[in-house]
Every structure is written in C-alpha cells, then in structure tokens.
Specification:
Keywords: Cytoplasm, Nucleus, tRNA processing
Distance between the termini: 36 Å
Subcellular location: Cytoplasm; Nucleus
Largest sheet: 5 strands, antiparallel
Pfam family, one: Pcc1
Shape: elongated
Number of helices: 2
Strand content: 35-45%
Helix content: 25-40%
Order of helices and strands: EEEHEEH
InterPro entries: CTAG/Pcc1
Strand order of the largest sheet: 1-2-3-5-4
Number of domains: 1
Family: Belongs to the CTAG/PCC1 family.
CATH topology: TATA-Binding Protein
CATH architecture: 2-Layer Sandwich
CATH class: Alpha Beta
Oligomer: single chain
Length: 109
C-alpha cells in the first residue's frame, strides 16, 4: 500500500492510496483533491461523472464531493486497467481544474 501527497500546478492530491486486495484479487485506488469549496468540487464532479468507464466489467469508479473535496475510488481486476483508467481520469480532472482557474468563481453548473 502506498500513500502520497503530490503537488501539481493545477491541483493538489491530498491523499493517494493504491492497494492490492488479496481477498478479492482486486487493485484499489483512492485519492482526494481539495478544491476548498463545494462549488468548485461539484463543477469538476459534473464534468467527470458523465464520462463512464469504457470497460465497466474490469474497472469500477465511484466519485463523491465532501466538504469541498473530490473523493475518488477505483477498483480494477488488473493493475494495468487501474493505471489506464486513472490516467484518463486525471486528464479530464486537469482540464476541468484549468477551466475553473481560467474562468474563476461563479461558474454555473
């Protein structure tokens, strides 16, 4: 299991945890991004929630907003599916975050 805190120019991952669940033979990934407001976290959630997993039998993703943080949980049958799903997810997450930074507060959902 690994925990990391990563700073990037667009957002900060507060916590990332990757785990192999031996009982279920699943690879799990959890992370949170602190947007410091429910409004911004909800905007990003709305952008990401419409993008469904391409292989839902191999990767499951749950997203929620709690206290201004975007919480994300991944479950995958193989590490490579977890990695690919996470990578694609972070691309859209970065784009949504850049949009908020560019256009500022008060964006309508």
């Amino acid at each position: 299991m690994g925990f990391d805190s990563i700073n990037c120019s667009y957002f900060k991952y507060d916590t990332i945890a990757w785990v192999f669940d031996e009982a279920n033979s699943d690879f799990l990934g959890d992370f949170e991004v602190d947007y410091e407001s429910n409004e911004n976290a909800s905007i990003v959630y709305a952008a990401l929630a419409v993008d469904k997993e391409l292989q839902p039998d191999k990767v499951k993703r749950q997203i929620s907003v709690v206290n201004g943080k975007l919480l994300v949980h991944f479950e995958a049958v193989e590490a490579r599916f977890l990695r690919a799903s996470f990578s694609a997810f972070v691309d859209v997450l970065t784009l949504a975050t850049k949009t908020i930074e560019q256009f500022g507060q008060g964006m309508e959902l």
